[in-house]
Amino acid sequence: MLAQWFNAKGNSIRAWGRLDETASPIGEDMVQTDNMAIIDCLMNLPVLYWAGNETGNPKYREIAVRHADMALRQFIRPDDSVIHVYLFDPQTGQPLRPANHCGFSLKSYWACGAARGIYGFALTYTYTRDEKYRQAAVRLARQNAADSELVLSANQLLERIGREDYLDRNPQCPGILINGHGGRLGYSGWATIF
User: Fold this and answer.
1) Per CATH, the architecture of 2-193 is what?
2) Do 33 and 14 meet the contact criterion of CB atoms below 8 Å apart?
3) What confidence tens digit (pLDDT) does each residue in 43-67 have?
4) What's this model's pTM, rounded to 2 decimal places?
């Protein structure tokens, strides 16, 4: 099923929606989803590596590698923070622009997205042994740690890498929001690459 969501022209795995629909509900809105890839999809790539190994069919590994390479190009900003969503032309596969459905705005650096980038590239490295994926995971992990504010407690590491949004603050919620899910994913990625 996951392989069916792959757009070979854009080298991306579609994130949301039914294959026979161009739009899907996200929150309270109907959003075009036939052109959308998300950083989260990196976490699905091990299924494709496994399928390739189990079936002997190289197409699954090829899809995973092509999606990972696209994510290296489109999701990592010059400062090594990450984008949540990237939009592509569904017919040509040409990259269109970044978008956002998590974090507070387009300039957000969402904690779970950072964690999924760290862990997803680390996992891809374990399957491919291609150093560019390990280097990406290390860069994202270092940026993730640098952008976090250290909160002194027994769960110091988890809190350090578990901020909800590093760059953008929600004016409705003053203070620091901790995202435990992002922290756990990020820690798993750190443990995989270090």
Assistant:
1) Alpha/alpha barrel (1.50)
2) yes
3) 999 999 999 999 999 999 999 999 9
4) 0.80
